[in-house]
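Regression test attached.
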Amino acid sequence: MAMEVENHVIDLLPDYVLDILAETELSQVAEHLADCPTCQAEFQHLLLVADELPLALVLSSPPPRVKDNLMGAIHALNTKTTASSQPTLLEKLTRVFRMRLPALGLALILVLALGNILLWRQLSSSSLQANTPMRVVALVSTKDSPQAIGTMIMDPDGHYGTLVVDHLAELDFEHQYQVWLNRDGERISAGLFSVNYAGYASLELLAPLPLIQYETIGITIEPMGGSPGPTGAKVLGSEIPH
Amino acid sequence: MDYTRLNDETLLRLIAHSDETALSELYDRYSRLVYSVSFNALSDPDRADEVTQDVFVRVWGKARTYSAEQGRVVTWLTSIARHRSIDLFRQTLTHHENLQVSWQEAEAIDLPDGQNVEWEVDLVQRQQRIRIAVAQLPIEQKKALGMAFFQGLSHPEIAATLGEPLGTVKTRIRLGMQKLRTLLQDEQL
């Protein structure tokens, strides 16, 4: 019986490696692999096959503009990152005053801080807020990410939307967050994102139907580049009210 | 510094330190492969362009988290490209009938003129090995395997597209992968 079970899992390993195994069999294979050295060895061999498959393709080249656009974007990003790491004028001034005139420097900081508070209050006043009845859906965090915050903001008709998240863990290079929309038992991917060092990200949600027509939204941890279906831990989710 | 002689892991370390020339070199090495993975999934050159650019932008952002123990750099690149392409394929729900994966015929590959750097030799050898192995698969197995791996289609979807029984498709994919596994292992002995 044990040998039959082992053979059965070995037969499932090619599909497991290709990510096309039925959900009902996924956990069976994963659990078996955890304790079976024979199947683990076979799994590793098949993984190596999958790694090599792209090298068997006929190769064609992207047009030169792809590299031009890429390097332009990277250069712009690189330049912006370098600039933001430079000390601000306030920081430079503060250092100067701290070194030479501590009392005056402190007073300057207090004056600027007071000015910022007054400006923030102005911006927050209702007279300056736009009267835009956007639909807002607050996502609920799970035990796998209890500090996470997520909000889906849709246009008044519920057609389009943007997801904003905060306090999500920064993932390693092999993983990303993937957004799922569910409708009538069918899940579709609405996008992928990575968070910055603070755990923040925003993403325009893409779906074939208006967002309001979906029943729930969820975010899971998936391999870099995404998965055909959810495979990892769920971190945020919510029903979509109609 | 001659970036063409650096191995992939060194390039990534440089990219992690915001070295644009290193990213440019990595792009020159593997953009064709990344683009081809995407094109075979999407059959749309514009979207394949988009995925290609996206992959290398991600490399730029995630290079600092890469370590050699986690696998080859080229495998990482093609994995991102494949998953991203499958994700886009499913988002747009454009299932192409008879969408063929273009497997390269097994033929001798000449190294580029001039320098035979280590990464180039390794890549060419690996390409030859897998192409010879794939060429030994029956055409039906190649077709089903290509649809599963590059397009992320499920067994029922492949069966419906090919007009074949579900069990037949499952068997072809399983046998194809197992044969490749045997051929590649024999080649390495």
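Expected vs. actual: identical. Residues 1-6, 117-130 of chain A have pLDDT under 50 and may be disordered.
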